[in-house]
Structure formats: C-alpha cells, structure tokens
Amino acid sequence: MGLPKVHRLKKTKDFQAVYKRGQYYKSSHFLMRVLSGDHQTKNPFPTQFGISISQKISKKAVVRNRLKRQIKAAIRSLLPMIIPGLKVVITVLHNRNECNYEHFLRELKQLLVKSNIFYGHTKECF
After folding, report:
1. How is the chain split into domains, by residue range?
2. Does residue 112 surpass a pLDDT of 70?
C-alpha cells in the first residue's frame, strides 16, 4: 500500500519549489528537502511527500520501484507523528549496499527528528 492521496506530492512545480526553497537534511542513504508551509493555522493542509530515485541507483525499474514502496511504507507508519503543513522530497542517494525496511524506518525517523518535523521530538533525542 502506498501513501494516501492527500499525502502525495505529484506536481512538477511543487517538487521544484521544494528543491529551490526547502531546507535539506542528509543521512547516509537519504537527502531530505523540507519546505515549510502554513502549519500554524487551524486546519493546515496535510504534509505531502515525494520520492526521487535516480537511474544511477539502479537501471532496473523493478529495483527503484521496490525502494519507493519500502520508503512509502515507512513514511505511512510515521504519518501520525509528523507535523502537518509541509512539503517533503526524499531523494535516495547512491549506495552500493541494499537496505531493508527496518533500516529505512530508523533512518527516516532520525531525519524527521533532525529536521524538527516530528511531534514531541527534538534533535537531542538521538
């Protein structure tokens, strides 16, 4: 299962806005760009995620799509704890070794805490 439709970042202009104006945070496998929206209002729009995987990671679409599915599943499990009103693009960095789901989940959680978009957590937690 993927992300719910309201949490998907689909339009090219949205991706480019995040690339141009968003802050970035890096880990060993991911580069995460975050563009803050208006999350101070009473009913903010939900946080939207986009995933970018280059053909440098793998020439095979099967491998790239499997990585996307694993990342989306990890994000979906963390959605209730993420601050609303953001646009996030996650780029998978080129690495020689494969990652499993648990490693993706742990690394994404650390990046979300590092970027201060995780409810109730700050950088000092890790």
Report:
1. 5-125
2. yes
